[in-house]
Amino acid sequence: MLAEPSLALIAALFMAAAAGWFVARYWRPRTPQRGSRGGDLSEDYFQGLRFLLNEEPDKALEVFLRMVDVDNETVETHFALGNLYRRRGEVERAIRIHESIIARPALSKEHRAHAMFALAEDYFRAGLFDRAETLFLQLAGEGPSRAGALRYLLRIYEQQRDWEQAIAAHEKLVSLATPEHPTAIAHYHCELAERARAAGDFQSACEHLSSARNAQRNFPRSALIRADVALDMGDAQLAATLCQRVVELHPKFLVLALPRVMRALREQENEELQRRFAAWIRPEPAARAELAYAGIIAGLEHESFVLDCLPDLLREDPNLGEITRALAGEPTQFTPERRKELALALGRTLRRTQRYRCVDCGFASAAHFWQCPGCRSWDAFAPVALLDVTPGFYRR
C-alpha cells in the first residue's frame, strides 16, 4: 500500500501546477476589478505553499482561507487542500476549509454544491453522522451529486441500523444508478425480519422476508431466517426443506444450515426428516469430510454424523491426519469414545481460530457476518473451507 503523501510533497506538486496557473493568469490581458489585489494574490498563494513545504499546516491553512475571501479562481486549490487534510485524518482542518468556501457569498452554484458534498464527507469521516445526513439529504434532492449523496446516506443508515431509511434511500438510488451492493436491500428486509422475529411478530417477519425474496431470488439469508420462523412456529418439516434448498443452491452455507436441521430433527422426530438428513451423508469421502468439518465449526461435534465422518475428515486432510496418527494412532481404529474426544478437541481449537473470511478485504473472524465489519461489503463473508493450521486443506 502506498504511504499517504506528506504536505510538503503535495505542496511541491501544487508549486509545479502553480507555475502554469500563474502564467495563464498574468500573461493574458485582464481588466482589473474593483477590490482586486492583483499581484498580492499570487504572493499569498506562494506564501501558503511555502508554509506547506516548511510543514507549517496551520499557517498555510490561514493563508488559503484568506485567499478564498479574495478570488473565486482559487477555489479548486482549496478543494484539493481540504481533501488532502481529510485523507490525512486532519478532519477539523478540512471542515474549516470547506465551511469557509460555502460562506463565500459570490460562490457559484456548482462550487457551492461541490463544497457542501466535501463538507458532508468531512462530517462523515469525523463520525458526525447527523450533520453529514443533513447535507447529504439536501444534495440527494437535486443536482449532479444525487447518486453520490444517496450512497453516503446508505452507509450512514447502515451504521445506525436504520433499515427503513436505508430501504427508502436504496430505492431512490436504483432509479439513478446501479447501487454498489445490489443485494443490500434484501439484507435490509432481512434485518427487519430478524427484529420482528425477536419481538415474536412472526407475521411481520414473514412479510419482510417476502420483500427480501422479491428483491433477490434464491436469497440464502431470507431462507435461513424463514427456517427459524418455521421452527419457532413448530413447523420442522418446512424448516428442513428450506435448509436443504439453501445447501443445494449455496453449499458454502452448510455450516449455517446444519444447526437448524438438527433442531428440526430434535423437535419433530419422524422418518421423513431422518431420511432427508441421511441423504446429506453421501458416500464420497470428500463430501463426508466437508460434512464433518461443517458440523465441528457449527458446534455440533458431539453429533453422531460428525463422529461417523471424522475419519474421512482426517483422511482428506493429510496434515491433520498425519498429526493424529502420530499422536493417537490410526483414526479408523478409534473407539467411539476416542472419536468423541478428538472431535471435541477440534471444536475447542476451531473456536479459537478465524473461521470466516471476507473475500473482498481479507477481514477474518470467528463469527459469521452477512456484512463484513471491515469493508462493509454484503455477501462477502464466507466460511473458511478448512482449517488454517492445515494449508493443504485450502487447496482442495
What does this structure look like?
The chain has 20 helices and three strands. The chain has three domains: 7-15 and 50-102 and 109-174, Serine Threonine Protein Phosphatase 5, Tetratricopeptide repeat (Alpha Horseshoe), CATH 1.25.40; 188-271, Serine Threonine Protein Phosphatase 5, Tetratricopeptide repeat (Alpha Horseshoe), CATH 1.25.40; 281-396, no CATH class. The protein is elongated and about 85 Å long. β1 (356-358) and β2 form a beta hairpin. It is mainly α and 396 residues long. The chain has a three-stranded antiparallel β-sheet, with no helix packed on it.
The counted number of beta strands is 3
CATH topology of the largest domain: Serine Threonine Protein Phosphatase 5, Tetratricopeptide repeat
* Sheet of most strands: 3 strands, antiparallel
Radius of gyration from CA coordinates: 30 Å
Instruction: Flag low-confidence runs.
Output: 15-41, 387-396
Number of helices: 20
* Helicity range: 55-70%
- Portion of residues in beta strands equals under 5%
CATH class designation of the largest domain: Mainly Alpha
Distance between the terminal alpha carbons, to the nearest Å? 30 Å
Whole-number tally of structural domains? 3
Form type: elongated
Mean pLDDT: 80
Q: Which secondary-structure class do the elements indicate?
A: mainly alpha
Specify the CATH architecture of the largest domain.
Alpha Horseshoe
Topology order in helix (H) and strand (E) letters: HHHHHHHHHHHHHHHHHHHEEEH
- The CATH superfamily of the largest domain is Tetratricopeptide repeat domain
Give me the side-by-side strand order of the main sheet: 2-1-3
